[in-house]
Amino acid sequence: MELAFGPPSSFPPAKTCTRETDGFPTSRRVPFKLYDQRGARSVACCATQRAQVPELSLENEKHNLLRAVQETQRGLITSADQRSNIEEAMVNLECFCSGVPIDLVKLDGTWRLQYTSARDVLILLESAATLPFFQVGQIFQKFNCLDQSNGGVVYNVVKWSIPTLLEEDNGVTLLVSAKFSVLSARNIYLQFEEVTFEDINISGELQALIAPALLPRSFFSLQILQFIRTFKAQIPLGNQDRRSVGGLYYLSYLDNNMLLGRAVGGGGAFVFTRAQPL
């Protein structure tokens, strides 16, 4: 990213030293110069120019990333060149807020998956592409942390369906809940708690088979429909004797409408955009 600087000749001789760069990890230090009052006006002018350039560059980088993932079917179909372009676009975007602490107010809410390289998610997408009786709809991450200071709850939400039996793309909701705690500026630790199957929406064909609309619906058939609609299966992922599975998650970029994450340890990268509340 190129920034506008005044010509070196416009500043008086200066002493060179180092300081931490705002927005970068503490391990990165860059040279800077201490100028006397004669150079203060030039420094202020350059600072204004630098502030204007990143705002436009940021929107360009976000557009480049969304364009790079657009034809990948959320990561299911990618070539080597596409993966390289996506990684480059992610890194360019991550530079804009590297080291900035996580803003839980911005993080709170629902995020729709646009792309991932995580194997556990790609397995679902691959299954939907190869199995005629399985469909995967939208995938979300929902964070509840608005009133928290160092953590909250996150839900991984997958909408899936079985053709002819359940509504297309929204037949059943798979919900994986986890508590999370903020470990450092950009790292959170997930402690998975429970898997839930809920919100079953059967297709019109199956509903007509259970309770035909042209015949009087019996109490028994109505009870079956009510049971299906309210069915909820919960599977705990841990107990008192054994802790549930956990994982480290690096939130590499966050603003009001885009979230990038990386599962630490080679678990894959994620690109999310802001969605309507579930």
Automatic annotation (TrEMBL):
Its main location: plastid. The keyword Plastid applies. GO terms for cellular component: plastid. It comes from Eucalyptus globulus. This is Plastid lipid-associated protein/fibrillin conserved domain-containing protein. Residues 1-24 are annotated as: Disordered. Pfam families: PAP_fibrillin. Keywords: Plastid, Transit peptide.
